[in-house]
Amino acid sequence: PVVASFSILADFVREVGGERVALTTLVGPDGDAHVYSPSPADAKAMAAASLVVVNGLKFEGWLTRLLKSSGTKAKLATATEGITPLKMQDDGHGHGHGGEDPHAWQSVSNAKVYVANILKALSAADPAGKAIYEANAAAYLAKLDALETEIKAAVARIPADRRKAITSHDAFAYFAKAYGIAFVAPQGVSTEAEASARDVGRIIRQVKAQKVPAVFLENISNPRLAEQIARESGARIGGRLYSDALSGSDGPAGTYIAMMKHNISQIEKA
Ligand code: ZN
């Protein structure tokens, strides 16, 4: 029994663990892990788990309390261990707080570190399955290499002056750094705080001045803010990006690989 804190991590655990793992996901498809209230069922799953896999970098602010209240004896694996985190961008009036950006999965090379950490944790929790986990991880890492090649090829097809996008919350800094697409967002790295009118005004001016082609909706965020920016700046709505959660299995982003392919195709089409 393994617990993963949110849907993207759960996909990695499923790829490496395969049939040997009985997986419970706390924050499911289209869910917002920044602002989550664990249920009694979550505490129960936690108590029964032998391994709990989390993102870390303060993404799951509710986790410490849940770990404690569940009384679990599970081993805890932090999937971002070994990744050099990006610092949160300061918004110009001190709201960056010098913290670290938790959305590290948005670069494929970081996703490979997640997979390596999950492989290590599963092998330690279940040594008899080690060879299976290693074979699963090797097969999946090869797919991630192919994914990264595909994303870079898609970015290369976008004219350089159109490699920019607006989203509502700032979840794409790792993607931006890895693939050279500039992202702007009024809401900051967490969805916890509302964007201020001043931040929204600044973004609208920036969209107009830099001729940003499209504003994207996000699967975990209320579309209202993105729609307002599009309306007031004249930019188009470029579709929906998956930032912090997968879609349901019947949606366009049911796995990490499908999510990354969907996101880059939306950006390319915009
Ligand atoms: Zn986020």
Bound compounds = zinc ion
Strand order of the largest sheet: 2-1-3-4
End-to-end gap: 42 Å
Number of strands: 8
From N to C, what is the helix and strand string? EHEHEHEHHEHEHEHEH
Question: What is the approximate shape?
Answer: globular
**Strand percent estimate:** 5-15%
Helical run tally? 9
Radius of gyration over C-alpha positions, nearest whole angstrom: 19 Å
What is the mean predicted local confidence, pLDDT? 93
- Helix percentage: 40-55%
Alpha-beta classification: alpha/beta
Largest sheet properties: 4 strands, parallel
Low-confidence stretches: 92-96
Verbal overview:
The chain is α/β, with parallel strands linked by helices and about 270 residues long. About 45% of the residues lie in helices and about 15% in strands. It has helices spanning about 5-15, 40-50, 65-70, 110-125, 130-155, 175-180, 195-210, 225-235, 255-270, and strands at about 1-5, 25, 50-55, 75-80, 165, 180-185, 215-220, 235-240. Helix 6 links the parallel strand 5 (about 165) and strand 6. Helix 1 crosses helix 4 (about 110-125) and helix 2 crosses helix 3. The protein is globular and about 60 Å long.
